[in-house]
Write a structure and sequence with these properties.
single chain; alpha/beta; elongated
């Protein structure tokens, strides 16, 4: 079975330990982090995990590294949010797999969380992530778009706007803005 990372603010460590224990008893390997990654080994643990359970509370907002990793996990579809209080997560962290885990009903929330964890999959060689920080500088990390296609689109839109402006000038004044035959004759 795959690895599950449980991350939370240091103040929520007791609840995080309960979740980690339940995940381990469920047959999955659990890694418990009381803060965002600050070392490469911690960053690799976040990146290689099959799922990231983020214990979200008002205290989690202050950890920028943890928010960055949670956003990356959400983009890959690996994030499960466990809300411990009424604080709403940012838009990037709102996923369909979001559960309330309170001190009053801890076990009910943990059970729902465990049922939502994705089935561990063995990574195929084609889907393994490159260990380089930026494998291709022309590819946008969030959408997988090629930056060159953005420039092509901008160029196409600019040409379209210029063509519409040229036609509008011709309709309003009855003549083109430039006398193209005369211009081409002078260039020969």
């Amino acid at each position: 079975m795959g690895q599950v990372v449980i991350a939370c603010a240091p103040e929520d460590a007791r609840l995080g330990e309960l979740v980690a224990k339940a995940v381990t008893e469920g047959g999955r390997e659990a890694v418990f982090m009381k803060k965002g990654p600050s070392l490469k080994a911690e960053k690799d643990a976040f990146d290689d995990a099959d799922a990231l359970i983020l214990l979200w509370s008002r205290r989690t907002v202050a950890d920028a590294a943890l928010l960055r990793e949670a956003t990356a996990a959400a983009a890959r579809g690996r994030l499960v949010v466990a809300r411990t209080d009424a604080t709403r997560p940012p838009t990037a962290l709102r996923t369909p797999r979001s559960y309330a885990v309170s001190a009053a009903r801890t076990q009910r929330g943990i059970d729902a969380l465990l049922q939502s964890l994705p089935v561990a999959a063995t990574p195929s060689p084609a889907s393994t992530r490159s260990k380089r920080m930026n494998p291709s500088p022309t590819i946008d990390a969030t959408g997988g778009r090629d930056e060159r296609s953005t420039w092509r689109g901008t160029l196409a839109i600019t040409a379209l706007v210029l063509a519409v402006a040229w036609a509008a000038y011709f309709v309003v004044y009855g003549k083109p803005p430039l006398d193209l035959p005369a211009l081409l004759a002078t260039l020969r």
